[in-house]
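tool_call: predict_structure(chain=1)
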Amino acid sequence: MEAKLKKELGTTMLKSTGHSGGGCISQGQSYDTDNGRVFVKINHKSGAQVMFDGEMASLEAILKTETVKVPKPVKVIQLDTGGCAFVMEHLDIRGLSKYSQHLGEQLADLHLHNKKQLEQLNKEQQTVGKGVGHLEAPVVEKFGFDVTTCCGYIPQVNDWQDDWVTFFSQQRLQHQLNMVEKSYGDREVRELWANHILSVY
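tool_result:
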């Protein structure tokens, strides 16, 4: 795998730093390269490409908001042994508990970013003689995402919807219930959900 990483990253040096980690989904390892230190997530499952492509697009979208520090994504690499590696900027995140309040504020800014951009755009459009300024992150008025993302190994339906209730109920909750019925044949769940939807609408 290291030879593949060297080739894809265009680096002659690929030295493990000893920083490693992982969970129940992927494993990770940090390396020093000609272009600096990177963190490599590795997953050998068949769905790794979809999962990592979604994660890369998500990080790119967050970076454009300039609200919270996230690792800069570099590349998703298909492995010869199956699965993929996702290369990103290495961030030293040890001892960050003292910054928890600041992180909370940044996460709030992230969630308000699009709303603030919409307000800025509307204000500029109503100002005589002032054109619309350049916005680094695109303004969206719907709920969804351009690419498939994953919750663990489970691909999420991210089709754009006009309102949050439709997006969350149909593409998060309904999607999960469909998988429960398909995997376990539990029709009672569908009936309970259908009754709930009728009571809400």
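agent: The mean pLDDT is 89. Proceeding to next step.
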